[in-house]
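dumping this here before i forget
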Amino acid sequence: MFAFSVNIAAQNYQLKWEDNFDNPVLDEAKTWNVEVNGDGGGNNEMQYYRRENLTIEQDSSGVNCLVINAKKENFGNKVATSGRLNTRSNVSFKYGKIEARIKLPHTANGLWPAFWMLGDDFSAVGWPRCGEIDILEMGAAAGISQNKQDRFMDGACHWGEVWTYNSYDGTAPYGVQDDFHLYTLIWDSLAVKMYLDLDKYPNNAPYYQFSISGSNQIGDKSYYFHKPFSVVLNLAVGGNFTGITGNSNINKITALPVDGTPAKMYVDYVRIYQKGDAGEQFFGPSTIVDNEVPATFTVSKGAVSPNSVELLLNATDNSGSVIYYVTYGGTTISVKGISGVQTTCIITGLNSTTDYIFSVVAKDANGNVAANNPQTISATTGISYNGVVALDFETVGQDWTWTSFGNGGNAGSLYSVINNPDPSGINTSAHCAGYTINTGAMSWAGLFSDNIGSITFTQDNCKVKVMVYKDFISNFDLKFENGGSSFEKLLPNSLINQWEELTFDLSANIGSTMTRLTIIPDNSTARSAQRICYWDNISFNSNTLNALNNVLNDEVKIFPNPVRNYLHIKTESVITEIVLRNLVGQTVKIIASNSLDKFLDLTDIQSGNYVLTLKLANGQQLTQKLVKR
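structure:
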């Protein structure tokens, strides 16, 4: 699917029609026909199509979308409901490019989402004489049997006086059911060609192509594909395509929650383009002519972590939306934003302690570019802990630079990494940090280091543990700073002359990104002589540390571990969510699920140690350490 071909994105297409679903109600006057029936689509499907299952909603990024809701419920002698709509007699075209940006539901097992077209003469000649072009279908029985439900895709053409078809089943190189992806049809007098994610990979080869040249005689394939076609979107439940039919098998549709909660198919937009070539036809609302370029285009830098950079993008456009293309190194990604609303783009998978330059171009859907393109911004990623759970003063920490304060003129010589004073207790490591506080030192005498890099406190990463050893009782003060703000927590040790682990709960500071660690080991005014404090094993993701062991549950199988590319997860209770975090507690990947059997694509994840958390429908939450090779 990623072989190189002609750069489709570079061809001179002009936007003819679009629906961005920015209005709060569906346009049924000029564009869409809502289908209401329970005829099974001619494929023994299990749903009843209802108007109530079509909504306009915002997705998690705030973009308005058409949402097709499928759910388990009894209606019209059917055991499920869903939605289907088409543009017949309202919007149709012959030759050009049509694309839709869609976030698919998890289809395993039994959902069948589709983005396709029918000849606009369907009402007059019927099917298959009208011809059919299936741009995207997922949920096939073959994909289910191969456990590739999130990647197994179909493209097809159907035609004839008696049904004839040509189809291709392909496996995408990555999962396409966790976020929005772009599905494109290029159609001319010679062939139909279908592409995945041309906005991200403009040199992609088609995942399906079919020649429509021929004699143009009735019965010949060419006869059925040289006329206007209209658009169809739907989300079927079961049917011959999925291998699951009959009301009695509704419980085999594991993609639908048993409580009637809907599975959702989000459609961000549908767009039709043409180049003005001979033979092209378009029928629909007045042709859009948009020459206005995006304005007030700005780019600024947000949070920076060891492996990611956040870019804050903003521009205005008369179309209501702006597409930002971000280039760094040899990679280009795109993100769509609402006109005049700040859009966040988080670049992940970066190398730690590395300088990056990001070049950003703003365009509207018609290809008009902002006058001040491109905007460039630089960022340096933070230090990565490279899989080390704690600052242990063995391999991590000895190279850190610490600056003393409030402890007299000789303070610089009073800190060192030394032998553990008591390796027989809970801390058996060879070395630890040692720091002497002078008699006349300030109560807040301590030291700080900026070698922490960048750490963001989250719900799953807001507790810090420190092992402390003192021969006296006093507050141990842990403080985080970033130049603009700071917060600290003081905890006293309760033991003397032995190691004790202190837990600092920083949940009040979730969302804060900090770049400096400050330690005040003896926050006290009661010194009558020099005091020495020892500390060790500072863990920055202590919420998950206690769960870093194998999942001791016969109902859950996670393999292989270590893993190289694809992880297989099998459970006896439905998985509702999968969360992958690094050992500093930062979230790397979140995947919604509704399955007992899941393949997790980790090809885009860097090698290292991670924490995998499974949330199950039965209320359990299980965590396992995962090694990525």
